[in-house]
Fold this protein.
Amino acid sequence: MDFNFNIGGFAAQPQVKSFDSEKIYDVLIIGGGPAGLTAAVYSLRKGLITGIVTDQVGGQMAETTGIENYLGYRYIDGMELVNKFRDQVLQFGIDFESKAKVKNIKDGRIKQVELEDGRVYQAKSIIIASGKQNKKLGLEKERELTGHGVAYCAICDAPFFADKRVVVAGGGNSGVQAAIDLAKVATHVTLVQRRDHLTADQILIDKLSAYSNVDYKLNHVLSGLEGDKKLTAVRAEDRSSKEEITLEADGLFVEIGLIPNSAFVTGLVEMNGYNEIKVDSYCRTNVDGIFAAGDVTTVPYKQIIVACGEGSKAALAATDYLLNSPDL
Ligand SMILES: Cc1cc2nc3c(=O)[nH]c(=O)nc-3n(C[C@H](O)[C@H](O)[C@H](O)COP(=O)(O)OP(=O)(O)OC[C@H]3O[C@@H](n4cnc5c(N)ncnc54)[C@H](O)[C@@H]3O)c2cc1C
């Protein structure tokens, strides 16, 4: 393939171009979270004809109250970091679809990416950076209170609940680990678990039982959220007696699992038992020309800085693939 190195350096104004179904992209990136946005910066700076298709910009960062472990910022709001990432991508000029969802990918020398609205884009290589989404409780007000008391990542957000009362939903490894992280800082932690026992590893259960500020509501499911603009309490129902209790709380950590956004490539690329896309250390999937990066993959430790590193690797690996594919 021929590379176009004329990227012109930094542009003063953001340059967003519309997608073109006639165009054949060198790299088409699916997902506008940290992995996808970093992959875009690297692809654009390699002079590749690059596009991003995403159904939302920022990914899980946009749901984060505050970030203290992304280097360069001692503290930054999730949305502020999203805007910085987005602006950095847009300055290079890129074809950007920010409200489009990919439905499936057809493999071939030139790959076809079909959107849910029926449009089809073509690309020589693809980077899948579609991330994960938290399993939601499905309760009324859950969406509006997210970031205002309702949180999904204790590793990230526990320090913001110092000296507050919190509830953790989920008694598996992530729920119990979240309760441990929170018990260190919060005044009180209530762990709500739908089963009549915790399903976490015994070592975690033992660790949690050492904290005196934790109590358990086993055999309970969360049934409601209270508060306008800010969470004030959660309601939980006893699964046997159907009796409902109200737990005053400043925070609710929903730790009932994450699902990879990989359904649109089921049957195309290899996945593990959790539907994470299998990648090697170059972010290559088992399909030539299809790369994957970030939380949607088997790479351990789902964090922003990890996703960014993986996004950069995927873009560099895609560049090598294009250089070494004489027919492209
Ligand atoms: C509440 C919360 C707080 C967190 N706090 C921190 C923190 O403080 N520090 C830290 O390092 N990490 C934190 N994390 C984890 C971190 O946000 C993730 O590890 C990181 O965002 C993963 O990046 P990603 O690009 O792989 O995926 P994502 O961020 O999940 O982005 C995936 C993108 O793909 C898009 N997409 C999905 N499916 C499709 C499709 N079919 N078609 C088109 N687009 C699609 C999504 O809209 C999204 O834009 C937190 C996570 C959460 C949920």
Residues 30-36, 53-56, 59-61, 63-64, 67, 69, 101-102, 129-132, 134, 151-153, 156-157, 261, 264, 294-295, 302-305, 307 surround flavin-adenine dinucleotide (CB under 6 Å).
